Amino acid sequence: MLCLRRIVCDLWGRGITANLGPMCVGSRSVACQRAVTENGAPDSRTCLSLVVRNYAQTRRRQEIPSQLDDLPPTMLKTEYTGVQLSDAVDDVVKRLLSLEMASQAEKLKIKTQQLVDKVKRDPHDTRSPEVRIAALTAKIRNYREHIQKHPKDKSNKRKMLMAIDKRKKMLKNLRLTRYDAFEHVCAQLGIEYTFPPEYYRRATRRWLAKKALCLKVYNEAKRLQAAGLLKKRRPSRVQSKETQGKPV
């Protein structure tokens, strides 16, 4: 390998690659220059190769606002909300008991309870479809924020898709049984219910290109027809033969 490299550098130094511009190899731009000694003669022992790498630029992702932003940092945790002595403590202890020092799980628990309070039927309701849909909504939004920061986390993405399918099934059943409750849940939780397609077909590149071409031809024909530039279609041979023998 060393001998082969020496031979190649020797050939380059003798002038075989002289007066050549930069060569592109794949995504690399390689520029070969002749090494010249102090006397002006080419040096066969050196070879300069400048490699410029063009790395792919990452696309800027759209930032999703967190559902926990509306929680005030001075709000106490769930287990200290009804305690009377929490107001008598000093500021340092209050800060330790507030959401400012709370974990993500504790904040998510409070947010889930807030969503449940909006849709539950009575104060003791814990297992109704509305409550379960609210809990799934908080979990789905938390998964979405996590996946937006860590897009390669396939395990949590799979859990999020499973939770979405489960919530979609529960919304469908609630819509068929109690439509007023379904509308109330969608309005309070900010859910936009869309009907599933009648059939699913995987969109290939060929199908997309064919559909785009058909739409382009249809729009062009519609424009020409509106302008009066579209010629009328001539009758086909079969129709002309049929009309020739018929009595008037």
TrEMBL record:
UniProt KW keywords: Mitochondrion, Ribonucleoprotein, Ribosomal protein, Transit peptide
SUPFAM superfamilies: S15/NS1 RNA-binding domain (SSF47060)
Entry-linked CDD domains: Ribosomal_S15p_S13e
Compartments in which it is found: Mitochondrion
Assigned GO CC terms: mitochondrial ribosome; ribonucleoprotein complex
Name of one Pfam family that matches: Ribosomal_S15
Alphabetized GO MF terms: structural constituent of ribosome
Source organism, top-level taxon: Eukaryota
Coiled-coil spans in chain: none
Chief place of localization: mitochondrion
Biological process per Gene Ontology, one example term: translation
Protein family per UniProt: Belongs to the universal ribosomal protein uS15 family.
Protein name: Small ribosomal subunit protein uS15m
